[in-house]
Design brief:
This protein is α+β, with helices and mostly antiparallel strands. The protein has one domain (2-105): Ribosomal Protein S5, domain 2, CATH 3.30.230.90. Helix content is 29%, strand content 38%. It has a six-stranded mixed β-sheet with strand order 1-2-3-6-4-5, with helices on one face. The chain is globular and about 40 Å long.
């Protein structure tokens, strides 16, 4: 499992990424490992065409979790399952964890 982290205002934000043959599991959280809002996305079949995505569980950070799943699917060209658990605002969470996704994909 690959990991990227960022410390901000005394809190550590992390992305743990598990790459499988056909899918990606990304756990986005702050502090200790926790499951949060869960979203899934598939990559587009052709360049420039978006895949399908949906939030499976959760009531907070629906837009950010779904956007992170879509971003992960587009980056890795695989089905992506993303969990997001944080106390950041939704917009800030999307910025922070999107940056960490970029960081974890580039060793």
């Amino acid at each position: 499992m690959e990991e990227a982290s960022l410390e901000r205002d005394g809190k550590v934000h992390k992305v743990n990424l598990l790459q499988m043959d056909n899918a990606i599991l990304a756990l986005c959280y702050e502090g200790t490992l926790k499951i949060g809002t869960l979203a899934v996305s598939t990559p587009g079949l052709t360049e420039g065409v978006g895949g399908t995505s949906s939030v499976l569980l959760g009531g907070r950070y629906l837009i950010a979790a779904r956007a992170l799943a879509e971003r992960s699917a587009a980056i890795f060209k695989k089905m992506s399952l993303v969990s997001l658990n944080t106390t950041l605002s939704e917009g800030e969470a999307l910025r922070v964890y999107s940056g960490l996704l970029d960081k974890v994909r580039s060793p």
